[in-house]
Amino acid sequence: MKIIYHAAAIFLLMGIVVSKSWADGIPVDKVYHPNILANERKLEWRLVSRQNDDGNLLAQRIAYGQAISDNLIIEGYIVGERDELGDFGLQAYELEARWMLSEQGELWADWGALLEIEKQHTKNTFELTTGLLFEKEYTHTSLTINALLVYEWGNSIKNEMETEVRLKYRYRYTPAFQPAIEIYTGEDFVGIGPAFMGLHRYQGQKQLNWEMAFIAGLNGDAKDHTLRFAIEYEF
Amino acid sequence: MTLRVFVLLVLSIVALADTASAAVSEYSIQLKDHLFYPSTIKIPAGKKVKLVIQNLDDTPEEFDSFSLNREKVLFPKQTSFIYIGPLKPGVYDFFGEYNPNTARGKVVVLKQTKGATHVN
C-alpha cells in the first residue's frame, strides 16, 4: 500500500511541476497547513508585492482568526490592493474556514480542507475557493501542498472555474528559522523560490510567526518577481 | 487544465485511501501538578506510536515539541492522543507551554534490537 501512496505522491509532484493552471490576480499567497490548534486565536497581516512587465501589484490583508472547535478555524479578512494605476484601496472582504480532517501523524499524511468566500468591495463579484490541504513529514522536513478549485462569478466578470496549486517543502532547522522552497501555479503562472519562516514564543499560547518568500515567475516574462511576507500573532 | 484536475484527483484519491495503520503501540502519560509522569518515554525507532496523555490538573496545558513537530491542547480532566513517528534514534524534548519550567519531558527513540517487542 505504501508503494501506491509514494507513487501517487510522485505523480502529484510531477503534475504540479509540469502543469499550468488558471487563477487571476496574484497567485502567490500563503501555503496552508492542515493542522489546527484548539483555542487558537490570531491576528494576521500579509503583504504580497508582484513586479512584472506590467508594473507593480501590491496586496495587503489584515485578518482575525479563531478556532471554534478542535478541528475548525474561521478567519475573516479585509483585503487592500494597489492596481497598475497606483491606486491603493479596499478591494475585498473574505471569510475562510479551515478543517483538520485527520489527527496529526495518525495517517500516512495529514489532511485538511479549505473553504473561502470573497466579495469585491464595490462590485457584485464573488470568488469561492475550496480544496485539499496535504502535509507529509519526512524526518526534519515537511511537504505541504494545497490543491484548490476556484469559482468566480458576478456582474462584471465572466463566470469561470479556475485551479491553483501551492507547494512548500520546509526544513525544520530551528523554531526561529526554517528555510523552505515554495512553488506556485496560477493562471498563466508558474513560480518558484526560496522561503523562510520562524516563530518566537512568548508566555503560554502566545507566539509570533513570520514567513517570507521571494518567488520568481517562470512564465517567460522578462521580469516577474513576487515578494510575500506574513506576520501572525497567536494568543 | 487536465493536469491540474489530475493533481486534485490524485490528492483526493490518496486522501480517501489514507486510513490508519492497524496496530499502533500506546504509551500512557499523566500530567499532574504540571509535571509529566513518566517524563521519559522510550519508543522504538521506525515505528509510529500513540501517546495517550491524561491531564489530571484543573487547568489546560499545551503539549509542544519542535523536534517532534507536535502541538496539542491538553484539556483539563481529559485524555488526549498524540501520534508520533516513525522517528530516527535520538532524544526528542517536549514541554507544556503554560508551565514550561515544570512540565517537561523527553521521548527517547531507541534503535530496535532483534526480538524486542516493547521498549517502555
Question: Can you describe what's shown?
Answer:
The complex is a heterodimer of chains A (235) and B (120). By secondary structure, chain A is mainly β. In chain A, 7% of the residues lie in helices and 62% in strands. Chain A has one helix at 2-18; strands spanning 41-52, 55-69, 72-82, 88-100, 110-120, 125-138, 141-154, 160-171, 178-186, 189-201, 207-217, 224-234. In chain A, a hairpin with a 6-residue loop joins strand 11 (207-217) and strand 12. The longest helix of chain A is centred in the first third of the chain and has 17 residues, at 2-18. Chain A is globular, with a radius of gyration of 18 Å. Chain B is mainly beta and 120 residues long. Chain B has a single domain, classed as Immunoglobulin-like, CATH 2.60.40.420. In chain B, the strands form two sheets. A five-stranded mixed beta sheet of chain B has the order 3-9-8-5-6, with no helix packed on it. Chain B has a four-stranded mixed beta sheet with strand order 2-1-4-7, with no helix packed on it. In chain B, strand 5 (61-65) and strand 6 form a beta hairpin. The model of chain B has no long low-confidence stretch (mean pLDDT 88). Classes of the chains: A mainly beta (235), B mainly beta (120). The A-B interface holds A 1, 4-5, 8-9, 11-12, 15-16, 18-22, 35, 37-39, 70, 101-109, 111, 131-132, 134, 137, 139, 142, 145, 147, 149, 163, 165, 172, 174-175, 185, 201, 204-205 and B 1, 3-8, 10-15, 17-20, 48, 60, 62, 66, 69-73, 75, 81-85, 87-88, 97-98.
